[in-house]
Amino acid sequence: MQSVTRESICRMNKLLTFGCSFTNYRWPTWADYLGKQYKSFVNHGRIGAGNEYIFQTLCKQHAIGNITADDTVAIMWSTTVRYDYYKDNDWVTRGNVYNSGYSKEFIDNFVDPIGYYIRDCGLIHGAKQLLENVGCKYVFFSLTPLNHPIERGKYNFLKKIFKNDIVDKYEKIYKSTIDIILPSVYEVVFNSDWNSRVEELEYVLGGTYEIHAGPDWPSWEAFANGIAVEPSEEILLDMCERLGATTWKEIIDHKLWMCKDYHPTPKMHVEYLDKVLPDWRTWD
């Protein structure tokens, strides 16, 4: 059975969705809107999930008979720099491995972004084969492109790492699988720049900034009252790295001193569906 691309599909009895917090969050996501088109809808998305968790959850649902040829499966694959593991009777899904509290020793000795990329290419290929064997309709979305797992500005160092002959090699090996993944939220909604629409994002005022701010940073109150003064070059570089900015003006203009929630708003989720699957509303 071929995957769903941009062509319309017939309405099925049940939709099963898989992904991370871009799939299942505290407000409606693409999965919730798509689910309204079906008689039954089950959302298996989980906050912080990486592609290991997504694949294992898919396999479990298949093994217990919850995916049939009459169903539709929609997966939003997460970024390739996430590390999931099972411990104490539950999955641990902490998100980006570089921002999850792991020690420098663990990062240095056990984390390899290219290795994670190779892992996820295999997982996604395995999911494709499983779903085609079932014979159901399915569609693959993505949070970011597999070879561009940038979740925030301070992880831009990954760009250099992924300009790699090994990445090129595995893109060719798994080309038939990678080609069916629809353009990512990062590309379609955020124009390949997480700060491109920051004014439209949700904010949580105060608190978090003070926790993450360096000791010599301007205070949150100074920003809120419009009296923050541009700091020294050294402090500004630190701020830009942590806040995902390039200049002081960008910090001010985009209000990066506020705690931004980079999850797409409900409106953005609908926009994403409209752009990658423009006929999703008329499935019948």
Q: How would you sum up this structure, described in words?
A:
The chain is of the alpha/beta class and 284 residues long. The chain folds into two domains: 14-193 and 263-282, 3-Layer(aba) Sandwich (Rossmann fold); 202-261, no CATH class. It is built from 13 helices and eight strands. The strands form three sheets. A four-stranded parallel sheet has the order 2-1-3-6. Strands 4-5 form a two-stranded antiparallel ribbon. A hairpin with a 2-residue loop joins strand 4 and strand 5 (90-96). Helix 4 (113-134) packs parallel to helix 6. It is globular, with a radius of gyration of 20 Å. The protein starts with 13 loop residues before the first strand and ends in an 8-residue tail after the last helix. Mean pLDDT is 89; it is low at 5-10.
Number of domains: 2
Largest sheet: 4 strands, parallel
Named CATH topology of the largest domain: Rossmann fold
* Shape annotation: globular
Order of helices and strands: EHEHEEEHHEHHHHEHHHHEH
Number of strands: 8
CATH superfamily of the largest domain: SGNH hydrolase
What portion of the residues fall into strands of 2 or more residues?
5-15%
CATH architecture of the largest domain: 3-Layer(aba) Sandwich
Low-confidence stretches: 5-10
Helix content: 25-40%
Summed up, the helix count is 13
What is the CATH first-level class name of the largest domain? Alpha Beta
Quaternary organisation: single chain
Mean pLDDT figure: 89
The order of strands across the largest sheet is 2-1-3-6
Determine Rg (CA atoms, Å): 20 Å
* Helix-and-strand structural type: alpha/beta
How far apart the termini lie comes to 19 Å
